[in-house]
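User: Quick sanity check before I run a bigger batch. Here is a single chain. Can you write out its predicted 3D structure?
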Amino acid sequence: MLATVTWPDGKTRQYLYENSQFRWALTGITDEAGARFATYAYDVQGRAITTEHAGGINKTQLQFLDNGQTTVTSSDGSSRTYAFQLQQNVLRPTSVSAPCLECGSVTKAFTYDDSGSLSSKFDFDNKETRYTYDTLGRETQRIEGYGTANAQTTTTEWHPTWRLPVKIASPSRVDYFTYDAKGQVVGYAWFPTIDANGSQGLSATPSGPMTSTGWTYDANGLATATVEMIGDAVTGQWYFTYDADGNLQTLTDRDGKVGRALQYDAAGRLLDAINMDGERVRYQYNARGSLIAYEVDGRVSNYEYDANGFLTAIRGPASYYEGYEYDAAHRLTARLLPATVQNVDTSNPFGPLSSDRPVPPDSGRVQSTWSALWTRLKDWVTSWIPSANAQAGWQRILIPRWPSRSQAPINAPASPADELQEGAGIRQNPNTLLQQVDRTLRDLATRVTDAMTCDEDPRCTRARADAQSAYHNITTKRLPQYLTGGTAGADEKHRKSILDRQIALKDAIRRVRLYCVAWPLELPEWERVANMEVPILY
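Assistant: Done. Predicted structure follows.
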């Protein structure tokens, strides 16, 4: 049994097995700071009956009834009872007595076909979602709101051999995928349709031009070229080269602009590069692989972490600082911002600065603009979070009890291509696109535990992840670099990179609102960042 995990920096996480009857049963976890943050308990049959984090946070209790049903009580005190049926030696949920408002589950009943695949589910408004499959168990049609005037249909045609979609018809659009003999995506295209509800399936009539992307690969399966088109017009073209280890070396666009990766470490993490705007970008990491320094043309942002690896501070030029605090349950509990004047202003924090606005003594344009900007930002934040306590040198802004950790470690760039040019990662590697599709179209019959794990729509899961990623990118990298270097040169490109990420964040928020039943508590903060005005500092 796993007893400890020791990180390269020497910090250790310990796994506890304290149940003398079931010695294999995990009963707790002690984190890298030496604090117990998770506890699990079992009944006399070895079934888990409680799980909680430090201080009873997120406590969930399970009661196994004599009739084979299970009652689950959430941390908010609400409870619901699940019924099951045994089919082909698999215990499948069939009904739920009440919705889980805390986690977003609103499914009350499930039915299955003879193969065990989910054939329909009903929510607490009695709206039905119906599924059909091919002989390989792949979803071919999904109708949400079945039998109603608002029914929405998604139709999928699959590759004859691989578990890869070829055509997907959904409301107002049709998507196409083509593959080579190795199963690599060589083409992706989509066009809008007049079919607002998807009922026409793959026969839907186009209402606009086709947008397409094509890829070519080398013998090692690495993308060497990408071309994007709208109709017959080429809108973008990129070329990629690699070193002997398969690390991206150069990225060239259709105009001949080149971005170069100059150095990687032994783990394949990007250390040094010149992006397509000609900026020198450098990265430093700690022993765990978390980013500790991010430099753009000499402007450095530093990142600090606690023993658990959580981000605790961002420091940059011009006295830039933002800190984070966590509780024993690993929840983000407070933000630390520079202290400024105590005036309260609930207007947009990035709006025009009033001429009579009190600011600290002027120490140059950057410092003056920065101080005034932070004054607006701090005052605006405190207007919607009532518990803001002034301290010497900084403000401690309490955070509502968010269920998810909001400031995870900053890791190496997921795609070095994105560091050479914003958004180039998916152009280099179409697998990201396929993964998004798979999350939506994967075989629902394999998700037999979904009723016990909130039955979250995979589109909601993806949207939340995209929103968190875009928010994280703006607040921990793009914005600090821009605000502290606005007069150091031509910074229009830095501002544009923030605006591009804001567009991505807005799209993710739109999908969160569309697909998530329970909206994340982070949503107001995401919306603030997505809609904030980015000042012109150049």
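The radius of gyration is 26 Å.

User: Great, the batch can go ahead then.
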